[in-house]
Design a protein that fits this description.
The protein is of the alpha/beta class. Strands 1-2-3-14-4-15-21-17-19 form a nine-stranded mixed beta sheet, with helices on both faces. A seven-stranded antiparallel beta sheet has the order 8-7-11-5-6-10-9, with helices on one face. The chain has a three-stranded antiparallel beta sheet with strand order 12-13-23. The chain is built from 13 helices and 23 strands. It is globular, with a radius of gyration of 24 Å. It has two domains: 311 residues, Aminopeptidase (3-Layer(aba) Sandwich); 136 residues, Aminopeptidase i, Domain 2 (Roll), CATH 2.30.250.10. The longest helix has 19 residues.
């Protein structure tokens, strides 16, 4: 073998030049990487909405011995080292913790992700008939390219209540024997005017109407026959009337399952990688710690809702729910009377990974990225020191001290990490739940999985990035 020159050795020592994780992974890890991907695909196939994802989490947590902290509070019970508790936030987000050996006053380690994804929501009075069709009127949720949601199979998920107040869970379009739904588009032969418009204009949000049916109810005295057919099917199946739509939460999401991509099966395509890939890896990291001894520090996982629309509302990170949970821990883990000062001190000494995805470099659109700071599929977990737009507006910027600390933890645990900024300056940007938690005094950095086609109905991630991110979250929770 040719001996390396002094310059080559110096460059190797001083430069930050990463190979893909596939090249550096151990052969004996390959089976575990594949199994982890299989488990993930199964989980997100069943959790396409924030309610469904949260329900799966709660089911697993209860099987693992986690206890509802609100029940403990009502009973007046105290928490001790090793206690496992959760807070169910209205069925749409969940916060859970394992109390560590050290007192809360030394801080807690937090991983926080979100479980909502861009989608199409029904309006409150959605069903109408026109041109011999029954259609649902909708309002899109989160930042999407409208045209990507046209002419693809859609599934209907959600919750609706009967007049008697009985809840009915809806899921139509996921079983292979189910019908699916679709938003129609104009044929090319008649689309000359449409094709002259900008992509942001040739399809309006108000036009995202979902095709629901076309068979008329056979009664000449009925005015809207097709609409009545749809209402009758829903009534027979769920016991509801049209009035129920006023309070319902019905979402349309892409129908179909997560699939492997590529002849080498190295990638996963699915709806909702943003941000359920990070939520799943965070959950698995905590569950692995449950199987081990009691952690040194208390660990918390926060899976929030509403991030895609600003984290507002009582299930989003802008609410007091996370802060309340920490206060509950403080109140129930000591024998002294609760003081709000205790909660403030705990938060000020705590650290968090804002577990959210980043945009992976796409060679088909290379001009919008700064290649030096872009994240790449296959190169591991992404650290984003700051987010925001333009002059970092609307984002969070981690301190140099905290960035170094996280990098050091990953390096010590042999977890490959990479830089990640969301595009060139002034070309775009975005935010996460990081700044909401940072506002409480917690040290926070964004840290997650690189994603191709982010916010599209079918997003793409690398299996090895999924596994590397899980290992990164596990290292942080144990060692920070």
């Amino acid at each position: 073998m040719e001996e390396k020159t002094d310059g080559q050795q110096l460059a190797e020592k001083l430069s930050f030049d990463l190979k893909t994780c596939w090249e550096t992974a151990k052969q004996e890890d390959m089976a575990e990487i594949e199994k982890f991907a299989v488990d993930y695909k199964e989980f997100i196939n069943k959790g396409k909405t924030e309610r469904e994802f949260t329900a799966q989490c709660l089911n697993i947590l209860e099987k693992k011995g986690f206890i509802d902290i609100e029940n403990l509070i009502l009973k007046g019970s105290k928490l001790s080292s090793g206690a496992k508790v959760y807070l169910n936030v209205k069925g749409k987000s969940v916060i859970f913790a394992i109390l560590g050996k050290k007192p809360l006053s030394e801080g807690i380690n937090i991983v926080g992700a979100h479980v909502d994804s861009p989608r199409i929501d029904l309006k409150t009075n959605p069903l109408y008939e026109d041109g011999g069709f029954a259609l649902f009127d909708t309002h899109y949720y989160g930042g999407i390219k409208l045209y990507q949601w046209i002419t693809i199979p859609l599934a209907m998920h959600g919750v609706i209540f009967t007049k008697d107040g009985e809840r009915r869970d809806i899921c139509i379009g996921e079983d292979e024997n189910d019908p699916v739904f679709v938003i129609t588009d104009l044929l090319p032969h008649l689309a000359q005017d449409q094709m002259q418009k900008k992509a942001s204009e040739f399809f309006r949000g108000e036009d995202l109407d979902v095709l629901a049916g076309s068979k008329p109810y056979l009664d000449e005295k009925v005015k809207e026959k097709v609409k009545l057919t749809i209402l009758n099917i829903l009534n027979e199946r769920y016991g509801i009337t049209e009035e129920a739509f006023a309070s319902a939460e019905i979402e349309f999401v892409p129908a179909g399952k997560a699939r492997d991509i590529g002849l080498d099966r190295s990638l996963i395509g699915a709806y909702g990688h943003d941000d359920r890939s990070c939520a799943f890896t965070a959950l698995q990291a905590v569950l692995d710690i449950v199987q081990d001894d009691v952690p040194e520090k208390t660990i918390v996982c926060y899976l929030s809702d509403k991030e895609e629309i600003g984290s507002m509302g009582n299930t989003g990170a802008e609410s007091r729910q996370f802060e309340n949970f920490i206060a509950f821990l403080c109140a129930k883990s000591v024998d002294t009377p609760y003081s709000d000062i205790d909660t403030r001190l705990v938060l000020g000494k705590s650290a968090m990974l804002s577990a959210d995805v980043n945009a992976a470099f796409d060679p088909s659109f290379a001009d919008v990225w700064d290649k030096k700071t872009a994240s790449y599929c296959g190169k591991g977990i992404v650290l984003s020191k700051y987010t925001g737009r333009g002059g970092k507006y609307g984002g969070s910027d981690a301190s140099a001290e905290f960035c170094w600390k996280i990098q050091n933890i990953l390096n010590k645990n042999k977890v490959q990490w990479q830089f990640g900024n969301l595009g060139k300056v002034d070309r775009g940007g975005g935010g996460t739940i990081a700044y909401h938690i940072a506002n409480l005094g917690v040290e926070v950095i964004d840290c997650g999985i690189p994603v191709l086609c982010m916010h599209a109905p079918f997003e793409i991630i690398s299996k090895i990035d999924l596994w590397t991110t899980y290992r990164g979250y596990l290292a942080f929770l144990k060692d920070c």
